[in-house]
Amino acid sequence: MATLAEIRAKLQAQTSKPSGEGGGDNAIYPHWNIGENTEAVLRFLPDSDPNNTFFWTERAMIKLPFNSIKGEPGSAPVIVQVPCMEMYGDACPVLAEVRQWFKDKSLEDMGRKYWKKRSYIFQGFVVSSPMQEDVTPENPIRRFIIGPQIFNIIKSALMDPEMEDLPTDYTRGVDFRINKTTKGGYADYSTSKWSRKTSPLTAEQQSAIDTNGLHNLGGFLPNKPSEVELKVIEEMFKSSVDGEAYDTERFGQYYRPYGVKAPATSTPAPVATPAPAVASPVTETVAPVVAPEPVAVETTPVTPAVEAAPATGSKAEDILAMIRARQQKS
Questions:
Q1: What is d(CA 297, CA 319) in angstroms, rounded to the nearest whole number?
Q2: Separation of alpha carbons 166 and 179, rounded Å
Q3: What is the value of pTM for the model shown?
């Protein structure tokens, strides 16, 4: 288990680096579903991975919006989440294209739509909850998908010199209180905070750890896309930018919207061709469909309706051609 000093040193090192940004599982506690003006109390636990300095792991996903599902007239807009290759330390072909869009103000909104979305996976106990869950897992060690707003509160407190002990310490740790309010019609968690008093784990909580063990948080990240899956992601990206409907037969074997079943039959897998910006081939197994994460405002992870891409008359190839032409002139 890393010490508080080690965590602070690594957070400080990360802060000094330039930023690159301009299936349901009832083991996940859905804090975004708590009522307005209510509070959920959590107790975070360390990662079982000895190589992870932090008690969380970062997840980076790209959301590909589609106006509808092909072959389903009147279907609502859907979102398909795919892993960003930068999460594995490799170049991401989607972001390689999207980064260029921010050089043109008319494409900035489009760029933000396709930029990677960060979230953070924690584990721990639900000390108290203001909502009644229909089903709770047998293992009381839950997972938490924390968005940037709450994460920044957690991170800032860790850098505070007045925090003398790790909040995950079994005897001198502290609980974290998620407070939900609203601001501008959206969920707001800015009043969330760490408890002021330390408290030891209860005998029941300690027993749960002894019985079930701690999770390796890295195991809950999506599998790294294979060469074929990476090609599928590129094709889905182009299809989304072009304003096409989501094609279940074409893409459903690999990545699909939450709640959409895999096709009985599918079109042949695309042939992966080497490209400079694409990471070298890997031999991972097919990545499972990724359950949706809370959006940036930390609301429910159920797939939301998405506005159609701006009708600028420019297709993906037109946008990319315009960007590349501008680069050649500069």
A1: 29
A2: 21
A3: 0.72
Cβ pair 152, 193 in contact under 8 A: no
pLDDT tens column, 104-113: 999 999 999 9
Tokens (6 digits) for 176: 């974290």
Question: Which residues have CB under 8 Å from 112's CB, separation 6+?
Answer: 22
Could you tell me the two tokens for 138?
């047998």
- Provide DSSP, 237-273: HHHHHTTPPB-HHHHTTT---TTPPPPSS-PPPPPP-
**224: part of which helix (H) or strand (E)?**
none
**DSSP character at residue 107:** G
- Output DSSP code: residue 69: B
Q: What are phi and psi of 158, to 5 degrees?
A: -65, -30
Length of the chain: 330
Alpha-carbon gap, residue 83 to 177, rounded angstroms: 30
Helix (H) or strand (E) holding 319: helix 316-329
User: What is the CATH topology of the domain spanning 4-329?
Assistant: Replication Fork Single-Stranded DNA Binding Protein (3.90.198)
Rg (CA), the chain: 21
CA proximity to 144, closest of 327, 11, 287, 293: 293
Residue in 180, 206, 208, 209 with CA at minimum distance from that of residue 192: 180
Task: Give me the amino acid identity at 115.
Answer: W
Contact call for residues 308 and 77 (beta carbons, < 8 A): yes
pLDDT in tens, 64-99: 999 999 999 999 999 999 999 999 999 999 999 999
